[in-house]
Amino acid sequence: MNDIYVVTFSLASILFLLNKRFFLSALFVGLAFASKWSALYLIGLNSILLFYFFLNEQLSKKILIKALFFIALLVPVIY
Question: Could you tell me what percent of the chain has a pLDDT over 90?
């Protein structure tokens, strides 16, 4: 099976997450998950990165909750 779609969407999601564009990151997580179920690990990776940013005080608690809300809402809707 060709995994180019899940890899492309996963890399785009990580790129947007590192640039703190959480809506687009969650959108690409949903697209990656819709193309292949192995993208479920990407949700865990994104959550770990978000908590890392939060613990290093690069994110406020309000922004962290908003980002997790985007992931929890958009991924099932897109799938």
Answer: 30
